Amino acid sequence: MELSDAYIASFIPERDELLMEMERFAEQNHVPIMQLAGIESLNQILRIQNPKSILEIGTAIGYSAIRMAQALPNCHIVTIERDVSRVQYAKEFIARSEVANRIQVIEGDALEVDMGTLPSTFDAVFIDAAKGQYMKFFEKYASLVPPGGVLYIDNMYMHGLSDLDIKEVPRRKRTMIRNLKTFSDWIMAHPDYSSAFFPVGDGLLICLKR
């Protein structure tokens, strides 16, 4: 039995005015941010893990970074975004939040960022950027997570496209979906990680480093 949207929404607490403004901005300007059920679930799992540092790949306008910082009052977040206009919006929104002193925004392509400019370790990595590049993001940044750390990957369901036969996927998205499926098969079989898929939001993959 599928749960109704109204029933799911009944478990989502109200957000502050800044977050509501960001949600409206994202909808009006077609900026992808985490679905409410997804971010609430992620934050609850993060509260259990209680990381002191998180690296986020894909800032967009800073929504998830702010949400994670609000949920984890002792956590510092470094977030990377390559889109110049989104970086500007993210910095503006973050500056208006009460967690601005714990969020650092780095402008640049996450695949080209100099690892030497980042802290040597992060308790968690959250990947929510170009879906077709998830394998490359994971391979580059997983080394920063020590055993016992966690990598979180959003949009694994990709609005239902990941569940389709590749011939049913719009042609312009086929390479991305193929890459996403290749990544999911690879990580689920990887001996160094205990991974599980959570059907919340647009699909959240959680990988615990052994």
TrEMBL record:
Q: Name one Pfam family in it.
A: Methyltransf_3
For Mg(2+), which residues are the binding ones? D128, D154, N155
**Which EC number(s) does UniProt give?**
2.1.1.-
Residues engaged in binding S-adenosyl-L-methionine? M34, S64, E81, D109, A110, D128
Per its record, the protein catalyses: 5-hydroxyuridine(34) in tRNA + S-adenosyl-L-methionine = 5-methoxyuridine(34) in tRNA + S-adenosyl-L-homocysteine + H(+)
Keyword Zinc-finger annotated:
no
Gene Ontology molecular function, alphabetical: magnesium ion binding; O-methyltransferase activity; S-adenosylmethionine-dependent methyltransferase activity; tRNA (uridine) methyltransferase activity
Q: Which keywords has UniProt assigned to this entry?
A: Magnesium, Metal-binding, Methyltransferase, S-adenosyl-L-methionine, Transferase, tRNA processing
Assembly and binders: Homodimer.
Q: What is this protein called?
A: tRNA 5-hydroxyuridine methyltransferase
User: Could you tell me the gene encoding this protein?
Assistant: trmR
